[in-house]
Amino acid sequence: MNTTEHCNRLRSAAKALILGLALACSSVTMAQNAPAAAGFAAAGGAPAAVGSGGVGMGAPALSGGAPGAAVGAASGAAASAGAADGFETQAAPTVIGGEGLSPSQDAALDQAVTVDADGNDRVGGTVRAARVLNDFQQFVARSTGQVLPLYGSGFFAGSRVFNSPTAPVADDYVLGPGDQVLVRIWGAFESQTRAQIDRSGMITLPTIGPVSLAGVRIANAVQVIENQVGRIYRDVSVSVSLDRVRGITVFVVGQARRPGTYTVSGNSTLIGALFQSGGPGANGSLRRVQVKRDNQVITEIDLYRFLANGDTSADIRLVDGDVIVIPPAHGYVALTGQVKAPAIYELKDRTDTLRSVLTVSGGLPVVADPRLAFVERLDPSADQPRSVFEVSLQPGQPDFVLKSGDLVAVQPILAEFANAVTLRGGVSAPVRLPYRAGMRISDLIPDKATLINRYVVDNQNRSLLDRGSFVGDVGNLFVDINMDYAVVERLERPQMALKLIPFSLNGLFADPNGPDNLRLQAGDTISIFTAGDVRVPVSRRRVVMRVEGEVNRPGVYVAEPGETLVNIIEKAGGPTADAYLFGAEFYRESVRRSQQANLDKLVQRLEQQAIAETARVSANILGDAQAVAQAQTQLRAEREARGRFLARMRTLKSSGRMSLGLPADEPSFAQIPGFRLENGDRLVIPNRPDFVQVFGAVNTESALLWRPSRTVSDYLEQAGMSREGDRSAAFVLRADGTVVAETGSWFSSVMGTTVLPGDIIVIPELIDRESGWTAFARIAKDWTQIFANLGLGVAAVRSIEND
Predict the structure, then answer these.
(1) Neighbours of 478 (CB within 10 A)
(2) Cα distance between residue 577 and residue 568, in whole Å
(3) If you average pLDDT over residues 500-513, what whole number do you get?
(4) If residue 485 lies in a helix (H) or strand (E), which one and from where to where?
(5) Is the pLDDT of residue 798 over 80?
(6) What's the rounded mean pLDDT across residues 347-355?
(7) Which one, out of 376, 470, 685, 694, has a CA that is 20 to 30 A from the CA of 280?
(8) Is 613 within 8 Å of 778 (Cβ atoms)?
(9) Cα dihedral: 455, 460, 465, 466 (round 10)
(10) What's the gap between Cα 751 and its chain centre?
(11) Helices 589-619 and 772-779: crossing angle, nearest 10°?
(12) How many CB atoms lie within 10 A of CB 640?
């Protein structure tokens, strides 16, 4: 198991001890480099033992009533070598656990902190060395539910420093013992020597002798060597390059992330050494880092100036024996709300102000309200230690001096328009316009062309790109606008009440001076609705339908409000002489969706009934072993047959066909029902077919020539029924989509039914022969009506019959 997997498993089991889990991960890494040392508990808890395979948890400790987590920490050689992989090894910081937070705050912490593939903790995408929070971070997390990072801490935790002894150096680099130089001499005398400066500060050149280079800048080394060579040889040239930089020893002490002794390049600076040691710890200062040399402070750097502005003026090159001191932070403030970098910021001294901290964070974003910020202050000496102040950040207002423990919340600006009116919905260009006195709706919607919206234009532009059939798109390029209702939305500020003022677009265009041309106010929103946004009455909807087949002018037609199917057929020129009105096919999308939903329910019901039937039969299998085996074999065959049948049923798709209910005996055009139409309706009038189809349990499945007055029995004699055929279950699928079947009446018989052109005669098999048909017959009641009620035609019948 790798380090990350180990951490993630422990984390899910004990989220309240997040730091302990982080140390458990780090202990796996430490075990590879150094033996684990004795641990100690944070915040005064009982000692905890750390082993190579995990971490021992000490008893939880309380500090001032605040819950803390007692965790094990690695120390000694492993800590000084940085084997903890960036995790804290000091006892003062603790970690927020579930018992110190509300459930929502604990969830916020859990979501904010994650572990990446390298085992580093991340908060909001920023790499953190450890999930360790100081006391103030814990306080802010409990107060706001936000886990804020220490400003700048992630910069050091996410960095990798490589001290290369061959890295280039600046011209002012001072040579010293341990540096290795490459000296080339040419002219009257030629030589190339790679020499290391010894403890006395000397190098030795062949035929030249010793040369003192200690304390000499690398840029001046050429002149020093030329002077020495010139005493013996004339007309020579010299070049000197630093071949290998010496190593120096520095000490990092105080509130460091990884205090200890470090060997760094002789070219290293203070900031570079801080990178190598991980920078300040959770309580360490980034604003008062000192370098001591011979017990004297030779520089103090404010890392905020470096992090915010790249200022390295206080950075110096280190020398052997330098001590880097990271003192405790003077104090902290939290910056939250509408700021560019929400975080915990360190105060350098008692003079830091709110504006100075905002400057470090990058200033206020444009969406922050400079008029309103709140500062929550802690006063430990008061009975009620917390108070709040309102602060203005506007120019010209006095600055606010911060104190340690302040929590600053900058409010977002209320992005409200002072002088705008908005037009939206079914218009060509939704827009926000500047308000002017006396503005009316006609200023925003001057004519009907304004209502040609982007959907219409996009459809027109896309129509040339369609490579398939475009017939279905004809008539659907335009979106109907609700011309009878539009609304002005207005906020009445004195009453804090919303007011909706309806108006009619028809009235607006008919009479621009009428009451529908409302006077607008600043802040008004005008909404224009399409017919799809708010459904309009059927009588006002635009209907586009297709008429195909045996009519004089097949095409796509618009049905005006109140027009029926008869009117549309008249627009199409009426039926031709070859039209077979009885077999007219009328399709509707809403009906198709309803039929398909019912078909899906039917299949689901059949599946449930099949399962129940199989279970019932299985429970009733009795007899000797041979009889049981035979019954189980038969049951398995029946189950497979049902499964094949249901699989075919699941593939069936409803057509949305509606029967027009025309009489079978030569219906006339006048008998077509005059019902309301819907958008997308489709009418297909076929020519009269000359054949009748017969299939199922017959000797010859074929299309037979239609003859007037012939019955089902006549056609079955012609096709020949097989012995497996069930005459009592025969049915006729009419050309108009209806089904003729046995009704159970004494005088009812399908065999005597007169067959019409285009009819389909179906003869199912007897139920004692298990198949898809008989499985269907076992389960479903009134199944012959399914084909009519669910819009299934001959293709569906053949699909099931072929099982």
Answers:
(1) 14
(2) 18
(3) 94
(4) strand 481-492
(5) no
(6) 91
(7) 376
(8) yes
(9) 80
(10) 64
(11) 90
(12) 12
Residue for token pair 């198709």: 592
Q: Number of C-alpha atoms within 13 angstroms, CB side, residue 223?
A: 5
Of the candidates 85, 68, 75, 83, which has an alpha carbon nearest to the alpha carbon of residue 127? 85
- Bridge-partner residues for 698, per DSSP? 721
Tokens of 646: 């249901």
CA distances to 35, 657, 736, 739 from 548, rounded to whole Å, are: 88, 15, 16, 24
Q: Are 113 and 125 in contact (CB under 8 A)?
A: no
Given a cut of 50, whether residue 80 has pLDDT beyond it is no
Pinpoint the alpha helices (H) of 81-218.
Answer: 103-112, 135-144, 153-157
Neighbouring residues of 480: CB distance < 8 A, sequence distance ≥ 6: 530, 531, 536, 541, 542
Token digits of residue 500: 């909706």
Coil, helix or strand at residue 556: strand
Element (H, E) at 343: strand 343-347
Token pair for residue 244?
């290998």
What pLDDT score was predicted for residue 658?
87
The residues, ordered by sequence, that sit 6+ positions from 389 with a Cβ below 8 Å of its Cβ are 374, 375, 377, 400
Give me the count of residues in the chain: 803
42 is written with which tokens?
Answer: 């944070």
Among 246, 250, 271, 268, residue whose Cα is nearest residue 259: 250
pLDDT at 645 over 90: no
Q: Does 208 score more than 60 pLDDT? A: yes
What order do you get walking across the sheet with 236-244 strand by strand?
A: 191-196, 180-187, 236-244
Residues whose CB falls within 8 Å of the CB of residue 604, separated by 6 or more in sequence, listed in order: none
Confidence tier at 604 by pLDDT (50, 70, 90): confident
Q: Kindly state the tokens that stand for 11.
A: 């984390």
Instruction: State which H helix or E strand residue 354 sits in.
Output: helix 354-360
pLDDT in tens, 759-782: 999 888 775 544 444 444 444 434
At 425, list the tokens. Answer: 């919905």
Tokens of 648: 């075919």
Percentage of the chain with pLDDT > 90?
A: 32
